[in-house]
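Protocol step 4 of 5: obtain the predicted structure for the target chain.
Materials: sequence only (see below). No template structures provided, no constraints applied. The aim of this step is simply to have a reference model before the mutagenesis design in step 5. Sequence pasted as it appears in the construct record:
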Amino acid sequence: MKTEKVFFSDSVGAEARKEGLDVTQGRTLSGDVNLSADVVVVGSGAGGAVMAYELARAGLRVIVLEAGPYVPSSEFSEDFTESLERLYADHGSQTNKDGDLLVLQGACVGGSTVVNGCVSFRTPDFILRDWQEQFGLSALTPEEMEPYFRKVERNLSIEENAGHEIARHSQLALAGAKALGWSVKPFKRNIRDCALTGHCLSGCKTDRKQSMLVTYLPWAVAHGAKIFSDVTVTQVISRAGQARGVIAEAKDSSGTTVANIRVDAPIVVAAAGAVQTPLLLLRSDLANGSDQVGRNFACHPSMYVGARYPEPVYAWRGALLGVYIDEFLPPEKGGFILEAGGLGAVEMTLITEPGSGEAFLDYMEDAKYYSGLVTLIHDHNVGRIGWDGDNKRVDYQLADVDFDSMLRAIKAAAQVHFAAGAEEVFVPSTKPLRIRSVEEIDQVLSELSNAPQVLRMVSYHPQGTCRMGSDPDRSVVAEHGESHDISGLYVADASLLPTSIIVNPQVTVYALASRIADQLIARREQYLGNASKGSGESG
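Step 4 output (C-alpha cells):
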C-alpha cells in the first residue's frame, strides 16, 4: 500500500470548488496518509468549529476531522425524511437501548448546528452557580462568561425574534400563556433575515441560519485551517501522558475504508459530541482515571405535546420557533420550559399514536388544525454511553424524579393549549391517549408510568459524558477543558457540561469553547515546545 507523507500546507485529494466551503472529502483519499499540525480537532460542530477558528486565528496550524459528509447548503432538500437520512447520526435512528428515546445529532460538516432550530440561550446563572458549588468550577461565574456570550452573540447575529417571526403556532402559545398569567418570551435565534420557511431541522438552504457551516468554519479556513470530511477518528494517540495525535479512517459513501490517516499533533481537541467523544476516549483507553468517561449522560428528553384547534394553524408555515414559556424554569418551580415549535407532516406522525389505515388517514387529514409545544426538562445525569462489543450503547431511562417533571411539563403544555382554545390534546405516548378538557388532564396522565416504551421522547441535546470539574476523581477534564490525565488532550463540546442546563445548549458550547481556546492559547508553548520530542506512541 502506498504511503504518502503529507504536511499541513499540502492539499490532499481536495476537489476544486466553484462555491461552498473548502473541504477535502475523505472519499477522494487513498492509501496511507500522514498529516501534521499543531492541533487536530475531532468534530466540526459547535465546539470544534469555534476551537478551530480561534486557534487558527492565533496562528496555530489546525486540522479538523469530521466523520460526516460535507453537504453544501445548495444541496439541502428541505425534506425532513431525506435530511434525517443524510445529515443525522445513524441516519436519524440513534436511540437508547430501550428504543423509546431518539437521540438526534447532526453528522455532517457543521454538526448539529446545521440541523438545529437556531434557539440561542445563555447558560442560566443558577446553573453556573451550581457548577461552582458542586463541581469546584469557581471561575465560571456569570461575570467571567459574559464577554464570551457577548462575543458569540455578536458573531452569530443572535437577536430576539421580531413580531413577523412569531408564526401562528407560536401566537397560540403566546395567547395561552398570557391567559394563564405565565411568563412567556420571544426566542433569540442565530439567524440573519429569516426566510420563514420552517425547514431549520433540514438545514438552511438560504444560509440565513448562522450555523458553523457558514460562519466559524469558513473563518477558520480563511486563517489556514484544513477541514477533512468523511473521516472517522478511531484512536487518540499519546506517549508518556501527553497527546500526540490521532488515527483515523477515510470512508467512501458506502462506508468502506479507502484510506488510513494519521495526524501527528501535540494538541488534540475532542469535539465530536456527547455520544461520540466518550466513545472515542473509551476506545483509546485514555483520560478515564476517574472512571467517569461516558457516565453522567443527560439529554433534555423532550416531548412534543400536540393539540387540535378549531381553526387552521398550518404549523409548518413561518419561523420554526417563536416563543418559549419560562414560568417553570427554576428547579424550585419545576425545572422545565415549554417551546412553541412548528410541526411538519413527518413530525405529526411521531407525536402520538394515530393508528394505521383509515385511522391514520383521518388523523393526517386534519393536519392543518394541529399545533404543539415542546417540553424540555432539567433531567438528572443518570445515563451512560459506552461500547457493547463493537456497537455503541446509550443507556438512558428517566429517573423517577425526572418522570415527575415530565408529567408536570405535559400538564402545563395541555393547560396552555386549552387556554389558547384547543379542542383536544394528544399525549405523546405509545398508548393512544387524548385529553379533551382541562378537567381530564390529571386523570389521563395518571395512566402513564415510568417504564420503557411508554413515552415518545426525543433529544436534541445530549450532554455531560466528559464532565468538567476541579476534582480529578469526579470529573474528566479541568476547568480549562484539558484532560486531568493527558496533557494536550482537550474536550470542547456538550460532553463537558457537569449537569443538564434545561435550555438549548448551543450558546453554552460556543462560549465555553471560546474560553477554552483562550486557555489553550495561553498554554501553547508547553505543548508546541514538546512537539518534536520522541515517538513510540501508544493508545
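Step 4 remarks: The chain has 13 helices and 24 strands. Residues 3-73+211-294+466-528 form a domain with the FAD/NAD(P)-binding domain fold (CATH 3.50.50.60).
Proceed to step 5.
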